[in-house]
């Protein structure tokens, strides 16, 4: 699955620079995660870095974008140009 940012986001700006795929950007009201770019940091780190730094724990899995670790790895390979 990709991740999502919920309404509890306080726009603290710490998650965006942590994303190795540039999947996080400022939305109209809160930060948003592009599910086409989010790999849950598969290929980069053992755990999603945005979740690690979020002070309000508002970055859960996105149930509308279910993906296995294998699919996330394939997405990482395409995004990184290693496919």
UniProtKB/TrEMBL annotation:
Pfam family, one: Fer4_7
Residue ranges of domain 4Fe-4S ferredoxin-type in the record: 1-29, 31-64
InterPro entries: 4Fe4S_Fe-S-bd, 4Fe4S_Fe_S_CS, PSI_iron-sulfur_center, YfhL-like
This protein's name: YfhL family 4Fe-4S dicluster ferredoxin
PANTHER family: PHOTOSYSTEM I IRON-SULFUR CENTER, PHOTOSYSTEM I IRON-SULFUR CENTER-RELATED
Organism of origin: Jeongeupia naejangsanensis
Coiled coil: none
Alphabetical keyword list: 4Fe-4S, Iron, Iron-sulfur, Metal-binding
């Amino acid at each position: 699955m990709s991740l999502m940012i919920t309404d509890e986001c306080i726009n603290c700006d710490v998650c965006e620079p942590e994303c190795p795929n540039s999947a996080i950007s400022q939305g109209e009201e809160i930060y948003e995660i592009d599910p086409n770019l989010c790999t849950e940091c598969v290929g980069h780190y053992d755990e999603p870095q945005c979740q690690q730094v979020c002070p309000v724990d508002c970055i859960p899995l996105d149930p509308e974008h279910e993906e296995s670790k294998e699919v996330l790895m394939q997405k990482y390979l395409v995004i990184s140009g290693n496919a």
